[in-house]
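Bench notes, afternoon.
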Amino acid sequence: MACVAACSIENGVPFTLADSSPVGWPLTLGLRTWVMWIEREEPAPSRLFMPFLCLQCQDTPCERVCPTRATFKTEEGVVLIDKSKCIGCGYCIIACPYGSRYKVKGGSMEKARREANLEEASKKLREAGLEDYIMKPPVPNKYAAAEKAVDKCTLCYHRKESGSWIPACVEVCPTRSRMFGDLDNPNDPVARLVREGKARQLRPDLRTEGLVYYVIP
């Protein structure tokens, strides 16, 4: 779960060590990225970890319904939210077919600070060799989480604006299962996986043409 923790710290997303009820997932989680555990019995007992995040749709249902134009796309196709325009109406949450948007509840940031067992968390991070990264202060950015506003994954777009664009979740992934690349560059490893059909979109039947692909065994 290093990707979830890294995203939360990088973008100021409220995060606690408490277990969330699976009822109503993913909207009840209040996370920009999350990992679902899937237990399998065949062909042998195993566990599949499935990461989820905003799929960065190019045919964008959430953008179409936003009454204040708070949701918009960058020239690269990244879907962002202007928090100064968001009125928290929730239309975009309903419109998203993937459940990738949620509203940051008032008081949730203070609640996260109270519930987090920082001493225990620090111990686990030291054991994983991730403490220096995870425990650093949140990075100020205009796309960070804000209470009472709708939130979602931004692919850490603020890093692109600062000159080094690698999302936090990709940077800390110990197995490199998360990859980030340029689909317009034919020599990019990510673009090659897409071109060869090894990386596929989730729910292509919805025709939202997302920029996030999965390599599924």
